[in-house]
Design a protein that fits this description.
The protein has 13 helices and 26 strands. The protein is α/β, with parallel strands linked by helices. Bound molecules: 5'-O-{[4-(2-carboxyphenyl)-4-oxobutanoyl]sulfamoyl}adenosine.
Length: 467
């Protein structure tokens, strides 16, 4: 378990199971021993460029073998890693970098054209020049494994303002992984596809579960359906699973899927399980290092109970969480700022309730709006719409209205052979008058571009120019 490790997990595995396959990337396979050796050399290469214990290193890139290896090697060098979504526009990225002031930046994506803050030195991915050398243990300082050191700063996908950087210790990350491994019985005999980005907690969660279990990590090839064939576990957001189920063939090896990141429609789970894919529902956030609650999916609407090491409380209809998987704070201006209250609780901003002994997530507090004096929770309408078999995605946004204050507008992604009018007619019967969308639109293509979820803020801007 988390606290029983006394070295970086890949070094432990290289001792205990050197020949077992640690990861697969296309045709390439690395054993734990080979992985540990490559990381040792990369770590050396980073140290020679000046990375030391406590350095803050921004790591910009989409998922790839190089990104993963750089990440782990930087951790071994004692650095704190700040993964960056390469799709972040410079208007967000530059103020962020000025606030976080990384010491180094390794850019594995299309290089940025804007100037970096002067304090941030560029790093290069260690090339053959470093890799052909035997690591010089005598000349470089091996960072000591400390489970209470900050490993990562992960940006929140906050709906307004600049993202915040949640700082997690190795301990919190491994403890989070332990709860999920236990829930899903993920062990050394299994493989998990790195199906979500490493700059998001959902992708990072996969890495820590893999390392903790000593299992096999599979880096995706395109398309997703093919990548999924070669592994037994995957993490998916509901839209990915919808798309997968619309393919004619089911991925051969895939047995277990952890769903999360958004409301999980019961119909989706039923259809997936009918094809032999077992589903688990998860609820989590950046601040909680992914999954807080989880369960084997059934036809009930909840997300299960708190996993080991986590606690949930409902305070004024809001979900509060506590426990050792929480971030140590938000990193800003060179120090940690607390994210919990005096009792250690973190207020999530999600509304929820206990229902049949499970947590039920009802939507974000700040998505609520009023229409003619009635409270409209967009997620309640969305989940109703998602019950229609032809609705793949639904977003409800408020549209300003002189008489009502605001009225709901529906943005949908539909199965190819369905029409918006039919959904509108069907929904009329099921919704209260103040919940009925006054406009029905098709979600713009690529609305989830790059990120794993839709941005309501961006969609609201898109809607505004169409009024
Ligand atoms: C939900 C929700 C739910 C989150 N119902 N709203 O490893 C995993 O747990 C995992 C597996 C597959 C896909 C995603 C994940 C995640 O980690 C998701 C974590 C995440 O989305 N973090 S976030 O900070 O970007 O967003 C958190 C917010 O997302 C929450 O505050 C909720 O509003 C929403 N959310 N799971 C309904 N099951």
């Amino acid at each position: 378990d988390a606290h029983l490790l006394n070295d970086f997990p890949w070094r432990v595995r290289a001792q205990t199971m050197p020949a077992a396959i640690a990861l697969r990337a296309g045709k390439e396979q690395l054993s734990w021993q080979t992985l540990a050796e490559r990381l040792e050399r990369l770590c050396n290469g980073f140290q020679q460029q000046g990375v030391t214990c406590g350095s803050l290193v921004a790591l910009r890139g989409n998922n790839s073998l190089s990104l993963l290896l750089a990440w782990l090697a930087l951790l071994q060098a004692g650095a704190r890693v700040l993964p960056l979504n390469p799709q972040l526009p410079s208007v967000t990225l530059l103020p962020l970098l000025r606030m976080l002031l990384p010491d180094f930046m390794l850019d594995l994506a299309e290089p940025l054209t804007d100037v970096m803050p002067v304090a941030t030195q560029p790093l290069t991915f260690p090339t053959a020049q470093w890799l052909n050398q035997t690591p010089q243990l005598a000349t470089t300082i091996q960072a000591l494994w400390r489970s209470d050191a900050i490993a990562t700063l992960t940006l929140t996908s906050g709906s307004t303002g600049l993202p915040k950087a949640a700082a997690h210790t190795f301990q919190a990350l491994l403890l989070s992984a332990a709860g999920v491994n236990q829930l899903m019985n993920f062990n050394a005999a299994e493989s998990w596809l790195l199906s979500l980005p490493l700059y998001h907690v959902s992708g990072q969660g996969i890495v820590w579960r893999w390392l903790l279990a000593g299992a096999c990590l599979v880096l995706p090839v395109s398309p997703l359906s093919q990548a999924l064939s070669g592994c037994s576990f995957a993490s998916l957001v509901p839209t990915q699973l919808w798309r997968l189920l619309r393919q004619p063939e089911r991925p051969a090896g895939l047995r277990a899927v952890l769903l999360g990141g958004a409301a999980i429609p019961a119909d989706l789970v039923t259809r997936a399980q009918a094809t032999g894919i077992s589903c688990w529902c998860g609820y989590g956030l950046t601040e909680s290092a992914a999954t807080v609650c989880g369960k084997r999916a059934d036809n009930r609407p909840g997300v299960g109970r708190a996993l080991n090491g986590r606690e949930i409380a409902i305070v004024d209809n809001e979900i509060w969480i506590r426990g050792a998987t929480l971030a140590s704070g938000y990193w800003r201006d060179g120090r940690l700022w607390p994210l919990t209250n005096e009792q250690g609780w973190f207020a999530t901003g999600d509304l929820g309730r206990w229902h049949q002994d499970e947590l039920q997530v009802l939507g974000r507090k700040d998505n609520l709006f009023f229409s003619g004096g009635e409270a409209v929770q967009p997620e309640a309408i969305e989940s109703l719409l998602m019950q229609h078999p032809a609705v793949m995605q639904a977003v409800i946004l408020p549209q300003p209205d002189d008489e009502w204050g605001a009225r709901p507008v529906a943005l949908l992604t539909l199965a190819a052979d369905e029409k918006l009018e039919n959904i509108a007619a069907w929904a009329r019967e099921q919704l209260a008058s103040f919940q009925r969308p006054v406009r029905w639109l098709t979600l713009p293509e690529g609305a989830a571009r790059g990120g794993i979820k839709l941005s309501r803020q961006q969609l609201a801007q898109w809607l505004q120019v169409r009024q």
